[in-house]
Specification:
The protein contains 9 helices and 4 strands, in the order E-H-E-H-E-E-H-H-H-H-H-H-H. With 240 residues, the protein is α+β, with helices and mostly antiparallel strands. Helix 1 packs across helix 8 (199-206) and helix 4 runs antiparallel to helix 5. The structure holds glutathione (GSH). Residues 1-87 form the GST N-terminal domain.
Length: 240
């Protein structure tokens, strides 16, 4: 059995989509990031970077003790290797997929995350117009990269649905909040609709819907408390 340390955000949904698509049994362990669960001593042992998702596989392939894995890209490589699904292993296909998984975690995730962050912030912390323009433009550039890539292939790595699609899709669901217009990206839109229609993807996206809260509907003091947890993070002191 796999324990999935999870909260329903785009990074978490990358893993639920994989698990639902492949029918891999798992158990959700909620990590309420608005409450600060990511800083608990137990979670820090699993991921010193205090971010979900993370997994613990209690039945690893080598027959040894439980294995913990953090970082969504590493988790998808691990699960794809374990199940033999969505990561073809011939040399050329393998690296076709690998480079797009790494592209997602190094480019699409961080930049779209910052686009959403600064666009939501308003002027609470002063004038954000440069940051909003910078990250909305970066988001636009990255949708352009997907659009160009999908112009002449069905999925990101070719004819087959792979972990490159699994990892990139959940970040595109909120294209409006990232300041984009989907009709500008015709080839991307075709892929977005096709991937979004897969039942496994829909099930994966829905996991934890009961856990999610719309923070913008909470009382102002509660919103402030959550902002302090999420947006004022500095190094955790380490004992000598
Ligand atoms: N590069 C990491 C990013 C994970 C990440 O940023 N997770 C966010 C939620 S989407 C988180 O746990 N945030 C907690 C916090 O900001 O304290 C991955 O791909 O797994």
């Amino acid at each position: 059995m796999i324990d999935l340390h999870y909260w329903p955000t785009p990074n978490g949904k990358k893993v639920t989509i994989f698990l639902e698509e492949t029918g891999t049994p798992y158990r959700v362990v909620p990590v309420n990031i608005s409450r600060g669960d990511q800083f608990s001593p137990e979670f820090l042992k699993l991921n010193p970077n205090h971010r979900m998702p993370a997994i613990v596989d209690h039945e690893p392939k080598d027959g040894g003790g439980p294995i913990g894995v953090f970082e969504s890209g590493a988790i998808l490589f691990y699960l794809a290797e374990k199940t033999g699904k969505f990561w073809p292993q011939d040399l050329r296909s393998k690296y076709e997929v690998t480079q797009w998984v790494v592209w997602q975690v190094a480019n699409q995730g961080p930049k779209l995350g910052e686009a959403g962050h600064f666009r939501r912030l308003g002027d609470r912390e002063g004038d954000q117009s440069y940051a909003v323009r910078r990250f909305t433009d970066e988001a636009n550039r990255l949708y352009g990269v997907l659009n160009m890539r999908l112009r002449d292939r069905r999925y990101l790595a070719g004819d087959e649905f792979t972990i490159a699609d699994v990892i990139s899709y959940p970040w595109t669901v909120n294209w409006q909040a990232q300041g984009q217009e989907i009709d500008e990206f015709r080839h991307f839109k075709r892929w977005f609709e096709e991937v979004g229609a897969r039942p496994g993807v829909q099930r994966g996206l829905a996991v934890g819907a009961d856990l999610a809260t719309d923070n913008s509907k909470l009382p102002p003091e509660e919103q402030e408390r959550i902002r302090k947890i999420l947006y004022n993070q500095r190094a955790i002191p380490v004992a000598d």
